[in-house]
Design goal:
Elements lengths: L9 E5 L4 H12 L3 E6 L7 H6 L3 E4 L5 H15 L4 E4 L14 H27 L5 E6 L12 H21 L4 E8 L6 H8 L4 H10 L2 H6 L5 H12 L10 E4 L11
Helix pairs in contact: 1-9, 3-4, 4-5
The structure holds nicotinamide-adenine-dinucleotide (NAD).
The site of nicotinamide-adenine-dinucleotide has 29 residues, from helix 1 and helix 6.
Length: 262
């Protein structure tokens, strides 16, 4: 048996229109899952590749519990259950405390933490109803392992998401529900990192800085790629990881290990 075969499984991926979410949705679909991508901003460029992989697209603003419930109920209506949830939707927030408004706080915490919590709430109902359980993967961050100085609200949101992962994993192991997280370092080809590079005075220097932040990325002379995160999401979502719960996998090229040798 191939333990990463996801035939007949239903998977929901939030924020799946671009970047890590899109790559994760494709990896899950290629492994056989029926994937539903939920995003508040669907992109027409995905229509063709998603249709080839039979990936369904749904508009959903994950900051709304009502919309999340509707999404999960729809996903569960396909086969009667949800097998996999990837809480991936997220936004960055590069601001020091003096410049953070209440709206900034609500946007970042609402997207990165509250949405994952209520996503879990409404997916777990559809994983426990028949006793079979399921797998939830939260896309946290390198900032979910160690705090960072340049984006405190983002750091707080991802540290909270890492805590949410462990807390709910402990609560729901008895229900055969596994809840894990991935913690990427800077990932190329994502809108999040592209927007950081776009606002830099010197684009090339910004890319070099991002690569240099991860010792393994520096050694390979390139950024971490979306597919490298998606493969970890696929592994955690599948039965290959059946005894793994409450774990955070760093996919950060060693960024969170400490100060590298010069
Ligand atoms: P991205 O901007 O390419 O993708 C994020 C997706 O989330 C977008 O499609 C966006 O439309 C969607 N989204 C944002 N707010 C939403 C909302 N309220 N409702 C529904 N959809 C929403 O960036 P990405 O890097 O692929 O981000 C995916 C996840 O990876 C995020 O949680 C991010 O924090 C995390 N992450 C990214 C990096 C990186 O270097 N890019 C590093 C660590 C962690």
């Amino acid at each position: 048996m191939n333990a990463t075969d996801l035939t007949d499984r239903v998977a929901v991926v939030t924020g799946g229109a671009s970047g890590i979410g899109r790559a994760s949705a494709a990896a899950l679909a290629e492994a056989g899952a029926k994937v539903i991508v939920a995003d508040y901003s669907l992109l027409s460029e995905n229509d063709e590749p998603f249709s080839t992989l039979k990936i369904e697209q749904q508009v959903c603003d994950v900051r709304s519990e009502r919309e999340l419930k509707k999404l999960m109920d729809h996903a569960a209506s396909l086969t009667g259950r949800i097998d996999i949830l990837v809480n991936n939707a997220g936004i960055g927030m590069v601001k020091q405390i003096d410049n953070v408004s209440e709206d900034d706080w609500d946007a970042c915490i609402g997207t990165n933490v509250k949405a994952a919590f209520f996503g879990c709430k409404h997916a777990i109902r559809h994983m426990t109803s028949d006793g079979l359980g399921g797998s939830i993967v939260n896309v946290s961050s390198n900032a979910g392992i160690l705090p960072r100085a340049h984006d405190p609200v983002y750091s707080i949101s991802k540290l909270a998401l890492s805590g949410l992962t462990k807390s709910l994993a402990l609560c729901h192991s008895k229900d055969r529900i596994r809840i894990n997280g991935v913690c990427p370092g800077p990932v190329g080809g994502t809108r999040m990192i592209e927007s950081e590079i776009d606002i830099a005075d010197d684009r090339d220097a910004a890319i070099k800085r991002l690569i240099a932040a991860s010792p393994a990325a520096q050694a390979h002379g390139r950024m971490i790629e979306v597919d490298e995160v998606a493969q970890a999401v696929l592994y955690l979502a599948s039965d290959a990881a059946i005894m793994i719960t409450g774990t955070l996998i760093a996919i950060d090229g060693g960024k969170s290990l400490g100060v590298p040798p010069q």
